[in-house]
Structure formats: C-alpha cells, structure tokens
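Record type: monomer structure entry
Structure origin: computed from sequence
Chain ID: A
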Amino acid sequence: MKRKILLYLLLFILFAGAAAAQNMDYERERHRGMLETIRDDIKKNYYDPTFKGIDLDAKFKAAAEKIKQAGSIGQMSGIVAQFMLDFDDSHLFFLPPGKVNKTDYGFDMRMIGDNCYVISVDEKSDAYKQGLRVGDQVYAIEGFGPDRGNFWKIEFFFNRLRPMTGLRLTIVKPDGAKQEIGFQSKITPGKQIMDATGGDLNQLIREEEDSYNRSVKQYFYDKIDGLFIWKMPHFSLDPTKVDDIVDKARGSKAMIIDLRGNSGGRVDMVLRLIGNVFADNVKVYDEKTRKETKEIIAKTRGKDVYGGKLVVLVDSESASASEIFSKVVQLEKRGTVIGDQTAGAVMEARHFGHQTGIDVVAFYGASVTVADLIMKDGKSLEKIGVTPDEKIIPTAKDLASGRDVVLARAIEVLGYKLSPEDAGKIFPVVYEARR
C-alpha cells in the first residue's frame, strides 16, 4: 500500500512538473509575441526615426533571449517593460496585462520638493494600523530610495508590473524620527478576463466606465466673493464642457486653476482652455513628428474669454497638458504659476491596444511617443518641466495637519485672505484606491 502511495505521489510530482514547464514555455512564447508586437509599434510610429540612436532590432533580440532564460512571468513582463524604459522617454512604456487580483496598498505618495511624502492613507488599511500617516517621508520602498528621476518607475513597478502582497518602508516622521514599518496589502481576488462570451469582460467594461466618470469629474469653490477656484484632476473633458466651466467664472475678478496632481490628458481640451483665457489666438507649440513639424494654435473664444486675474497651481505630478498650459501662461505673461517644479513629462503619445490568447484573452498595449513638443521659446519641456514663478513647498507638518500653504498663498497673491488651515478644507486629499 505504501509503495502504491509513493508511486502515485511520484507520478503526481512528475506530471505537475511537466505541466508547469509546459505553462512556462507558453508564457515565454506569449511574452516574446508581446515584445515583437510592441517593437513593431515603435518601429512604425515612434517620432524619432533613429530611435534615439538605439538599434531596435538588436535590442529586441537581446530582450527575446532574456525571456528564454526567465524563470517567472514577473521576470518576463519586466523584460518587456525594460525594453521600453531604456529609451528614457516619459510617454513610451509598456501596458502589461491586467492582474487577476487587485492589490491595494492603502496609501498614496508624491514627490514634494526633493522628497517623497505620504499624502493620503486609508484608515482601514494595514498600513494605517502599522503607523503610516499623512506627512511621513517615504525614505525607501523595499530598499529603493525614491527621487524625482525614478519615482514614476517605482510606482510603475509596484502598481502595474509587479504588485506586492505587502510592502516594507523606511519612513521619517514629521518630528524627524526614522523607522521601519511593514504591512500587508489588501488583495481582492478576481478572475481571468475571458472572451466576449464571458461575464468578466462586462465587469472590465463597467470598471472602465467608472474610471472614466471619475476622471471627468471637476471641482469648484466660489465661496469667496470675486474669486473662482477650479480643481481639475485630469484634462479629460470634451472641449465644449470647458466653455461651460469658464462661463461660471466670468463674474469673478480672479480665478485659480489648480492642476496639482493633474497628469494631463486630451490635447483638444488644453487648447480650448488656453482659448478661454486669451483674447487673441496663441501659438502653443510646434508639434514635431517623424514626418513633419506643425504649428499648433489655440483659437480664442473672442468676446467670451475670461479676462480676470489668473493663478495656476502645479506640483511634481502636474504633467503633459498641465505643463503645456502652465508654460503658455508664463510665456505670454497671462498670470502667475505657483507651487512645485512640474514632472517634465511633455511629449505626445498614442496608446496601441492588443490582446493575446484565444480561450482566455489577456489585454495589453504600449504607449508610444509620436511627437516632441517645442514650446514658443524654442525649448522642449521634456525632462525639464515648468519652474513656478513662485516656488512653495509644503512641509511634512503642513501635510500632517492638512494645511494647504500653496492654495493659501495663491489666494493671498490675488488680494484675498484665507488661512492655510481653511484652504486645506476646500479640496481635502482623500485616499482613493488605484484601479
């Protein structure tokens, strides 16, 4: 009897090992296919026909060879991602297949000045239970020290490429105390995304709709007589909606457009916004594609433009369209830009979506840079960003106590008065899990 059990166990191990090996071979072939498709996306569409001096085919062969040697799906996805990251281009990156399970770390962080800080925490999360608080400086994440150069790569790695079941952070408290904390992520089990006959695709569609609804939501504050404050999370509105919002501000002597945390979005929206605050047509930039260079003009709304005083708020997460708008305001001397140095991620890209598999479909894609944008002063903002007219960096204690010193200063510049404590209550930072 014991010999039979041992025989069955041995056969199980052998078959399981063969199945695992077969599965890894499938994954290697699948990832090589994704790599090849993405290489072709770049070859056909990248704005620089010399690919920044990179031998694209040689780079593909080297990456494909690494995939052959990879020992896990995570390693394979990392190789595909690195293939694109080596271009050091803010808008060229891998969009890996969505993970089956959803990972929520329970906190959000941001570069403020030269340091990384926690800006929101879910009070129900294990991170909060272990002592993580708003205003804590994130000194290291799993041993990686965040800075302005690598922060977006760290976020991409831990949120998109390889979500973790838990994290270990080195933090510095607002009082200067340094400590190590570890906590568990919240894992929400999911299912493989099936083809159109499966119900999970409908769930994916619903989630995308929810995401869109969140992205187009705008926030306003008009409780101070003569002042209109517009908090814009994304440049995602239909251009005609911009007219409607600016019309709300027309009776106010001054307007603040808060672009902190705004990573950009639609080009037609930023052009419409510029046209809403300038009495004449404005040259915004030269769009330099692979085949041509085209002058991009924002057309004024004429008599319907907003003519009051203007202040724009920016931070390290203000990117792309946010940077374009801020820089135009500076170059044309239309208003004042206040806050932190912006992201320096100003290119034009297209997303190329693909899928792999037959019975079980995995969706993936690539963001490919199709144009460089040269501003009116002859310079690109890529890797440089916008330097505010007045740089204001919140302290750890400001964050911990909910004081918004940047908004309070903007209000003061326009001739009004509001304490940082009260300014912090207008658009409080609330934790929202990534989806």
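Annotation 1: Confidence is low (pLDDT under 50) at residues 1-21, 193-199.
Annotation 2: The first strand starts at residue 93 and ends at 95.
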